[in-house]
Amino acid sequence: MKQKRFGFYLRIYMKILAQDLKSKMSYRADFIISTIGMIFTNIAGFVSFWILFRNFPSIHGWSYYEMLFLYGFSLISLTPVQCFLDNNWSLRIYVYSGDFIKYCFRPINLFFYYQSEVFDIKGLGQLAFGIGTLIYSWSKIGLGFTPLMLLKVIVFLLTASLIMMALQNASAGTCFWIQNSFYVMDLVLKFKDYARYPITIFSPVFRFIFTFIMPIAFIAYYPSLVILRPDAVPILSWLSPLVGCLFFWLSYKFWMFGAMKYSGTGS
Fold first, then answer.
1. Distance CA 128, CA 227 (A)
2. I need a surface site. Which of 108, 125, 144, 265 has the fewest CB within 10 A?
3. C-beta of residue 262 within 8 angstroms of C-beta of residue 101
């Protein structure tokens, strides 16, 4: 039954995805310009690390290539948000205009149906840049490579992605109660930039916040320690998959709770 249900949703998603991509490719200039902008944004982040480490050989025991590893790891783990949940940015508009009501009458999961309407293909450029950065830093650090390490990277990248997806779902879902929810989403987006840094460089207060309140430390720092510091992996690193799944589930429930309470304009 579960396999049939998954196959049902997969077939629907592929059909919706095909239509969305056709629509985007009809505006090729917009696609090319926005993709170039995404590439230059990532290059700017790369250059900022290079400039910083010209003056400081290490930061709290983290070398340039280790920091670069965190940067690449964070780019890859943020890609699913960019590609699959980009429609969250339009949620508040649909809610305030009343157009969101059309999603409430389909015989299909509401969250899936709404999110599947948009696939941000520019995120694939970010994914490629992140993979290149990760491989480059991996080789410079001199990390070994085994099938087990590859499995660890895949598992921890996927679960790290769930954290950022959870943060965006929760911040987007506030639009069901808060009129200016854009600022909540924008704040969360700005906080994600701190995910590329080791949590040890922050004060104890921010370490607590970034671990237990807004868990951006689980986007790159804690998962990366399994690969970078295998001899001293903290318990929070091993708990990353559990934390990722838990936060995503809670954010999904929060999003759906707001959606189920929605009753049109003025709700």
1. 20
2. 144
3. yes
